[in-house]
Design brief:
There is one protein chain. Strand 3 and strand 4 form a beta hairpin. The model has no long low-confidence stretch (mean pLDDT about 85). The chain folds into 2 domains: about 70 residues; about 150 residues, Trna Endonuclease, Chain: A, domain 1, CATH 3.40.1350. The chain is built from 5 helices and 10 strands. The strands form 2 sheets. The chain has a 6-stranded mixed sheet. It has a 4-stranded mixed sheet with strand order 7-6-5-9. The longest helix is centred in the first third of the chain and has 47 residues. It is elongated, with a radius of gyration of 25 Å. It is of the alpha/beta class.
C-alpha cells in the first residue's frame, strides 16, 4: 500500500468557507427581513403624513440587501455541491492510488509549491523509484475535446446546451511540472523523470484528445499507468526519494 504524506486541504477549506459564509448570511437574513419590513412600513406612514422619504429609502436598501444575500446563499449552495463532488472525486483517486500502489510509492495530496513568485497547486504527486507523477484532476462532465497544444478545450455539458471553452488541463499540469523541476534544481536535486497526468473523475465524462503525449485517463487507468510505467531510464534510490520528500515538505 502506498504511503500518504499529505491529505486534501484546499477543497476542504473552500467547503468550510462556503458553509461559514452561508451560516452567517442566514443569521443576517432574519434581521434584514424584519428591518426592511419595519422601515418600509414606517417610511410609508412618514411619507403620507410628513412627506418624509428617508426612512422609506432605508427600507428599500435593507430589502435590496436581503435579496442580494438570498441570491448569495443560493450561489453558495450550488458551489458547495460542486466542491463536494470534487472532494469526493479526489478522495476516491487517493484511495485507489494508496490501495493499488505498493509501499515504494509516496503520495502528496493537494501539494502547493513555490518557486520565487510562481506557485503550483498539484492535486496529487506520486514519488517512486520510477519517477515523479504530477496529477491534475478535473471533475468536468459531458464531452471534452481538444489537443495538447491548444490553450483552450471545448466542453459540451449536455446536447441541448452550447459548448464552452475551458482551460487546457495538460498545459496546467505541464506548468506544474516546470515549477517542480525548478524547485528541485534550485536545491541541486538531479531528478529528470517527472511526468504529468490528467484524470477526469466522472465515469460518465467522455473525452477526445487525439495525439496527446500526456496521458488523459480515468482514475483506474491512471493507477495502472503509474504501476506499470517503464519510461524512466534509471531507478531512484530510497535516499533520493527521501531527499525530494523532505524538500517538498519544507517548500509547502
Amino acid at each position: 500500500m502506498a504511503r500518504i504524506l499529505t491529505e486534501e486541504s484546499s477543497l476542504t477549506k473552500r467547503r468550510k468557507s462556503l458553509e461559514d459564509e452561508t451560516r452567517a448570511l442566514q443569521n443576517l437574513l432574519r434581521f434584514e427581513l424584519g428591518g426592511a419590513i419595519a422601515l418600509l412600513a414606517i417610511g410609508v406612514m412618514l411619507y403620507l403624513w410628513l412627506q418624509h422619504t428617508t426612512t422609506f429609502y432605508l427600507g428599500l436598501a435593507a430589502a435590496v440587501f436581503y435579496v442580494a444575500h438570498r441570491i448569495r446563499i443560493q450561489q453558495n449552495s450550488r458551489e458547495e455541491k460542486i466542491v463536494q463532488a470534487g472532494l469526493r472525486g479526489e478522495v476516491e483517486v487517493t484511495r485507489q492510488l494508496a490501495e493499488q500502489l505498493d509501499n515504494s510509492h509516496y503520495i502528496f495530496n493537494d501539494l502547493r509549491i513555490k518557486l520565487g513568485r510562481k506557485s503550483a497547486q498539484i492535486d496529487h504527486l506520486i514519488i517512486c523509484p520510477r519517477g515523479i507523477f504530477a496529477i491534475e484532476t478535473k471533475n468536468w462532465r459531458g464531452h471534452i475535446e481538444g489537443s495538447e497544444e491548444e490553450e483552450r478545450w471545448i466542453q459540451t455539458k449536455d446536447p441541448d446546451t452550447p459548448p464552452i471553452k475551458v482551460f487546457n488541463p495538460i498545459k496546467q499540469t505541464q506548468r506544474h511540472v516546470e515549477i517542480l523541476r525548478g524547485v528541485l534544481e534550485r536545491s541541486a536535486i538531479d531528478w529528470t523523470d517527472i511526468y504529468s497526468i490528467v484524470i477526469f473523475l466522472s465515469p460518465r465524462t467522455t473525452f477526445s484528445v487525439p495525439g496527446a503525449v500526456t496521458p488523459v485517463l480515468k482514475p483506474n487507468q491512471a493507477v495502472e499507468y503509474i504501476a506499470n510505467h517503464q519510461g524512466a531510464p534509471k531507478t531512484y534510490s530510497e535516499d533520493e526519494i527521501t531527499a525530494v520528500i523532505n524538500l517538498l515538505m519544507r517548500n509547502k
